[in-house]
Write a structure and sequence with these properties.
mainly alpha; 13 helices; about 65% helix; about 5% strand
């Protein structure tokens, strides 16, 4: 019993250490500014928070990734990653507060900040700085944090499979710092968020050894469904993923059927609620918020 507790404490210490290392390394590198791909997602967030609308008419000049319907513009990106940022509406109050004025003035007069701009660009203003700060914060919450938690899950899965401790740590750091995951880990894309959701579902499915309760099935389905809403190509991975544990369960058991149905059902429900809503809004011009 003491040995078991010692191993568990050791594992969680490693997990915390790895999460902090990955967060420090990915958070140190700011997201690329003036990236049309990231801007398209961020435009959606800013439009919802500031204007109460999905229209990005006021911000479309900073991106080429948009859809035009009638006289209005909309982001053409999957809504998963931006949706995670919608609850951060309180950040708009912080960015608009007088306390931010000194930082804004400092950045406007900073030669280092100026050097990141195009010579033929429109220069620095308060709105651009506010936009850039929002991108830094949201990229950290939506990409860097899930990426670090993904590293923790990789460690736990390897531990469950009996991989040596040193190998587990090296594998997590190698993935998090020496693969393309590092480049996407602090950018406002959906890649790392979707990967974290998929792997979290896999981690839960890996622990399915017998009877599975409905709440766990529901949560697994929600993770898989949201991964599709975040990055549509993951639909190719989502459906067969739950079947990984089928050999461990009796053929045709309610658990197997339930897991498969919940997964497919939630993918359809979550995606169905999001996309027709966006298309309907685009077609009618009605503000949804």
């Amino acid at each position: 019993m003491k040995r078991f507790l010692r191993l568990q404490n050791e594992r969680w210490r490693d997990v915390v250490m790895l999460v902090l290392i990955l967060l420090a390394c990915t958070g140190y590198v700011f997201p690329r500014w003036a990236d049309p791909n990231q801007n398209s997602r961020l435009n959606m967030v800013v439009a919802v928070v500031d204007d109460g609308s999905l229209r990005i008419d006021e911000y479309v000049s900073n991106t080429v990734d948009y859809a035009k319907v009638g006289d209005h513009y909309y982001s053409d990106k999957a809504p998963g990653a931006p949706s995670w940022a919608f609850p951060c509406t309180g950040m708009a109050v912080v960015l608009d507060s007088p306390a931010m004025a000194p930082l804004t003035d400092r950045l406007q007069s900073s030669s280092a900040f100026q050097s990141t701009l195009r010579e033929d660009g429109s220069g620095v203003n308060q709105d651009k700085i506010r936009f850039a700060l929002a991108q830094v914060v949201l990229s950290f919450l939506v990409s860097a944090l899930p990426s670090a938690l993904l590293g923790a899950l990789i460690y736990l899965v390897l531990a469950r499979l009996g991989v040596a401790r040193a190998t587990r740590i090296i594998a997590v750091l190698a993935y998090g710092l020496f693969t393309p995951a590092f480049a996407y880990a602090n950018a406002f894309y959906g890649h790392q968020l979707s990967a974290a959701l998929l792997f979290a579902a896999f981690w839960l499915i890996l622990g399915v050894d017998g009877r599975v309760r409905a709440p766990k099935l529901l949560f697994i389905g929600l993770l898989l469904g949201y991964s599709v809403v975040t990055e549509y190509p993951t639909a190719l991975v989502v459906h067969p993923l739950p079947l990984r544990r089928v050999p461990a369960l009796p053929a045709g058991s309610p658990q197997t059927v339930g897991l498969d149905h919940v997964t497919g059902g939630l993918v359809a429900v979550v995606d169905g609620l999001q996309q027709p809503r966006l298309r309907w809004a685009a077609g009618t011009g009605i503000q949804l918020f």
